[in-house]
Design a protein that fits this description.
Elements lengths: L13 E5 L3 H10 L5 E6 L3 E3 L4 H5 L9 E3 H4 L6 E5 L2 E5 L4 E4 L4 E3 L2 E4 L3 E3 L17 H20 L3 H7 L1 E5 L3 H17 L13 E5 L11 H13 L3 E3 L3 E6 L2 E7 L7 E7 L2 E4 L3 E3 L2 H9 L9 E2 L5 E2 L2 E6 L4 E2 L1 E2 L7 E2 L4 H19 L14 E6 L2 E6 L6 E4 L1 H14 L3 H17 L17
Parallel strand pairs: 1-2, 1-9, 2-5, 9-21, 11-12, 11-17, 12-13, 19-22
Antiparallel strand pairs: 3-4, 6-7, 7-8, 10-18, 14-15, 15-16, 20-21, 23-24, 25-26, 26-27
Helix pairs in contact: 1-9, 4-5
Amino acid sequence: MSTSPASQANGRPQVLIIGCGFGGLEAARELQKTGVDVTIVDKTNHHLFQPLLYQVATAGLAAPSIAAPIRLLFRRQPNITTLLGEVVGIDPAARKVELADGTQLAWDHLIVAAGATDNYFGNDAWEPMAPGLKTLADAFEVRRRVLVSFEAAEIETDPARRRALLTFAVIGAGPTGVEMAGTLSEIAHHTLEGEFRNIDPGSAEVLLIEGGPRVLQAMPESLSQKALEQLQKLGVQVRLNARVTAIDETGLVVSSPFSDGGAGLGSHRIDCGCVIWAAGVAASPLGRLLAAATGAETDRAGRVKVQPDLSLPGRPDISVVGDLAAAMSHAPGKEPKPVPGVSPGAKQMGRAAAANVLRRIAGQPTEPFRYRDYGSLATIGRNSAVVDIGSPFGPLRFSGKLAWLFWLFAHIYFLIGFRNRFVVLMDWASAYWSFQRHARVVADVQAPRKD
């Protein structure tokens, strides 16, 4: 099958967007109700609000609460077509992409917003034992592993093996790792209380392992320290300056400085029932495919280096946005700065790339991308969060319950759709008063067996 939107008889410019994450979604929104035809191609049929994905993994929210069908989002936009498919080939000379089923799609302007995947830093063999958290499928798998570990511990008679099953390791202390570890501790100490007869869920150990000197390293050191204290108050064991050197089906090996202050590193093994990877991201493999096809350069994480206006060198018809782009912010009168890999950056790049497409069509010069940093925030657990936001009076930095409320309402505000906002608010209110997490149903799981 072959379709060629760029050859349609209506004469309207054809824009192809690959990926409908934050960047792709905002690019499409910028182009709706304009004089162009837009085709969105995505491997899934939904837009995912990734900042709350850990809530699905920890049974706090159901998947539909943080996802919205792409077709639903644009059902009233006749100039936008949505296709389900995976891009496997790019032909810049012909201005076509090829999907896995052989379909070919042509473009006048291409916006690539394929996002990122987990980065195991050359240890891809660890992925089956330590799943990351990038998709709904990842969240379902993490949820399954967490809940099955408690179930397996309930029937385990060997004390050492039972202790291992009740040990959970989260690798990486960025926002996802911190949020995941804090929530796991709350599940063990509150949600599952009184539900088992042979084990005490509150005896579970949650480890947060970080290779750097502090948690949330992108935040100011004062907030990083607050986050550490709040994690420890929740019962999370934080291991800093600790690097994972091996992972297998029953645990992991960690290398860290000797506790007695001696020189060198010491290695020790941790047996655990569930390992979750939150240590880093790498660009989608589509980035290297695009670079090979166009001659563009990539950085160490596989992100494609772009021009100030987010287009590729020598290819003004191709723009790259979001986690796939190694982009710089070009504020007037200031030195260019790298754009962080966060959702606000992806959204702003998506809008900027689409606006530049319209400028090219109108014969106008494009504008360099300028990232506006509105701050960052992370929740640790119940009534615990840290917030760092900008204001006309300088940065506002606070933690604790006020920060948690700010985090809560900020995430509800940015969710897609009124229904999702309402459902999430009700679920969180119920969980706050009852400590319960009702999305604990796991399908197609065999009962645990003792070895």
